[in-house]
Amino acid sequence: MNKARLAQALIQIGHLLFIWSKIVGAYSHPEIFDMSKILGIDYGTVRVGLALTDSAQIIAAPLTTVERKVLWDYLGKLIEREKISVVVVGEAKRLNGEASEITKLQLEFVGALAKRFPQLVIHRENEMFTSKMATQSMLISGMKKSERQVKGNVDMISAAILLQSFLDRSK
C-alpha cells in the first residue's frame, strides 16, 4: 500500500472514530443525547402489549403487557418517565383490508389517547400477522412452552414487531 492510500485510509478511520466517539459520548451523557422514545401499542380486548424504542429510535423492544383497566394510569407514568413523544398504535385489518371486530375499540382508544395526551404524535401501523410472527419468534428463540402460553408475552412481542415495522418504514 502506498503512502497516499495509507494516509487516506487513516483519515477515513479517524472520521469513523470521531463519529463513533460522538455516538458513545451521547449515550454516556444523556443530557447531550436527549431524544424521546417511541411507544408501540398492541391494543386488545383484555390486554395491551407495549413496546419501546431506544433513545436513538432505532430498535424496538418488548416492554410489558398491561390490563386495560389500569392502562391509563400506567401510560401517564410511562409517557412522563420515558419522555415519549410519539405513539404507534396497531391497526387491525382483515386480509381484504376491511376493519376487523376490534377496529372500533382501537379507534375509540386512539381518540381517548389523543384527548388525554395532546402533546403526543399518534401513528397507526398495520398489525396484520404480528401475533403469528410473535408466536413464531418465541418458538425460534427457544422460549419454553409454558412461557409461550402466557398470552401477555405474545401481546408485548406483537407490539415490538409493529413498532419495529413502523421504524423501518419511516427511515
Descriptive report:
- By secondary structure, the protein is α/β, with parallel strands linked by helices.
- It is built from six helices and five strands, in the order αβββαβαβααα.
- Strands 3-2-1-4-5 form a five-stranded mixed β-sheet, with helices on both faces.
- It is globular, with a radius of gyration of 20 Å.
- The model has no long low-confidence stretch (mean pLDDT 81).
Mean pLDDT: 81
Largest sheet: 5 strands, mixed
Order of strands side by side in the largest beta sheet? 3-2-1-4-5
- The total count of strands amounts to 5
Order of helices and strands: HEEEHEHEHHH
Helix count equals 6
Low-confidence segments, given as residue ranges, are none
C-alpha Rg (nearest Å): 20 Å
> In terms of structural class, how would the helical and strand content be classed?
alpha/beta
Query: Span between N and C termini?
Result: 38 Å
Strand content: 15-25%
Q: Given the C-alpha coordinates, what overall shape results? A: globular
Which range best describes the helical content: under 10%, 10-25%, 25-40%, 40-55%, 55-70% or over 70%?
40-55%
